[in-house]
Write a structure and sequence with these properties.
With about 240 residues, the protein is α/β, with parallel strands linked by helices. The chain has helices at about 40-55, 70-75, 95, 140-155, 170-185, 190-195, 200-230; strands at about 5-10, 15-20, 25-35, 65, 85-90, 120-125, 130, 135, 160, 190, 240. The two termini are about 40 Å apart.
Length: about 240
């Protein structure tokens, strides 16, 4: 007879962290105060409380499902990484110019949110890929290397790379990514051809920027969470509910 699937779900809220443990023989729920400084500490506390109520050991948990608004909150509250954005020459201000879509179509005094990346942190490369993936202007490796050195020297925590028509040909984005990896292997780098390989530069740029903006914070948090779970004897895989 197979063991029951002891699945636990944990959700971090603004006030409480909630847990639900399904042992296959019944559901155990619990609630603890959210720990703002170390959310993972409240998660572990809630899980251990639930396992005690269910009469099972932490090592018997087979799956952890985690829901959080960490990503959404970081975007809304502008608490992401200090980041740089690298794009094609001539397209530095795409994310500021936006499109004709507006919250209020006829409000001439509408104030739109500032881009996640200020203009001083947006950099351009002399390169160009065509819409069919053809190389119209090759990216010089020396220029990519110089750009990487400049970004590392500025001390950015993350970098987003979004070049024109990279969805059709990612060679230049890969080249820039490799240049950064050679100089700063641990730097968080996101490229649009991986994060959002879609037509139209505005949504593609915004998506890769948002990813880079929250990635260091989320990566660090999930690393701490997994470390705490493993230290408590919970070796189950951790699944994260998407914050889309």
């Amino acid at each position: 007879m197979s063991l029951p699937p002891n699945r636990v779900g944990v959700d971090i809220g603004g006030t409480f962290t909630d847990v639900a443990l399904d042992t296959g023989h019944g559901l155990v729920t619990g609630k603890v105060l959210t720990d703002y400084a170390q959310p993972e500490r409240a998660i572990l506390s809630a899980i251990l409380s639930a396992t005690r109520q269910a009469g099972i050991g932490p090592g018997e948990i087979t799956q952890v499902i985690h829901g959080t608004t960490l990503v959404t909150n970081a975007l809304i509250e502008r608490r992401g990484a200090r980041m740089a954005f690298v794009t094609t020459e001539g397209f530095r201000d795409v994310i500021e110019m936006r499109s004709e879509n507006r919250f209020e179509q006829y409000d001439l005094n509408l104030t739109l949110p500032a881009p996640l990346v200020p203009r001083k942190d947006r950099f351009t490369l002399r390169e160009r890929i065509g819409p069919k993936g053809e190389v119209l202007l090759p990216l010089d490796r020396t220029e990519a290397r110089a750009m990487a050195e400049r970004i590392v020297a500025e001390g950015y925590e993350a970098v987003a790379i979004g070049l024109i028509h990279a969805y059709a040909n990612d060679a230049h984005e890969k080249m820039m990514e490799e240049a950064l990896a050679e100089i700063a292997p641990g730097l968080s780098v996101s490229i649009s051809s991986v994060i959002s390989p879609q037509l139209r530069e505005l949504p593609r740029f915004n998506t890769v920027i948002a990813n880079a903006y929250v990635q260091p914070q989320v990566s660090a948090y999930l690393g701490r969470l997994v470390d705490r779970l493993r230290a408590a004897g919970i070796g189950a895989p951790v699944f994260l509910v998407h914050s889309g």
